Amino acid sequence: MNWLVKTFSRRHNWSIPYLIFLLIFVVLPMILIVYYAFHDADGNMTLRNFTKFISNAEAANTFVYSIGIAIITTLLCILLGYPAAYILSNSELCRSKVMVVLFILPMWINILVRTLATVALFDFLSLPLGEGALIFGMVYNFLPFMIYPIYNTMQKMDHSYIEAAQDLGASPMKVFTKVMVPLSMPGVMSGVMMVFMPTISTFAIAELLTMNNIKLFGTTIQENINNGMWNYGAALSLIMLVIIFATNLFSDEDDTSTTNEGGII
After folding, report:
1. Are 129 and 209 in contact (CB under 8 A)?
2. CB 3.0 to 4.6 Å from 146: which of 10, 11, 164, 191, for a disulfide?
3. What is the 3-state secondary structure (H, E, C) of 209-236?
4. Which residues neighbour 37 within 8 Å (Cβ) at sequence distance 6 or greater?
């Protein structure tokens, strides 16, 4: 007992439970995914799981289609979320915490509940379920994840840059495009990360809003794992992890260039 008290009396030791959690629920599953991806059902090391994905036209087409849906969803979320975040951060009426909570409130509701509500809405309006419903449901579910990071960045923005641009005679459009947009890019990139990757890997939204007629990459992974094809499913999951890692690298580089640009302005 004394050892436990002495251990947690030091602040840096408070991270030990979190490190244990990471090892069990993050690192260990990652190791298992890599192991299964590079082995066959008999435990022999192989690259067959990856060559199967490349040679399988259906899986490759599903992957490309999922990226297309993710790009469309992300662009729509930016087009709808950026103005909303701008209004929330600049309008005196919208600066109240109540307005911000109203925009973030959908994030507190389970994604399946929101999707089922979308299905009921389309049924009530006698609208067909399909690709249009899928994109609508994706945007509806992930839009708050785009609005909040942009709003948070705009709230913390140094407004002296805007005032300096106005003092130098810049028009409102110039101030917006040359100052506001570059300085808010870290929030936009965070929003892109929070929308783009989940859109590719999700499967429940596609199943519910298309009556299981349209498959996304997440559906392919889920079907293979449910059918006991752990090795092939792990290979597909590893491909997703590589894409997430590459997107993170791109996001970090973009944030650095944006910061440098902001310093020049």
Report:
1. yes
2. 191
3. HCCCCCCCHHHHHHHHHHCCCHHHHHHH
4. 49, 50, 231, 234, 235, 237, 238
Looking at the domain that runs over 48-264, which CATH code has it been given? 1.10.3720.10
CB-side neighbour CA atoms (13 Å) of 190:
15
Percentage of the chain surpassing pLDDT 70?
A: 86
Q: What pTM was estimated for this model as a whole?
A: 0.81
Residue 186: C-alpha distances to residues 81, 136, 172, 177, 250 (Å): 14, 26, 22, 15, 12
Instruction: Supply the pLDDT for residue 231.
Output: 92
User: Nearest to residue 221, comparing CAs of 194, 244, 200, 191?
Assistant: 200
Tokens describing residue 203: 């499967």
Region class of 43: left (phi > 0), else alpha (psi between -120 and 50), else beta? left
pLDDT of residue 4: 59
- Taking only the tens place, the pLDDT of each residue in 32-52 is 999 999 998 888 999 999 999
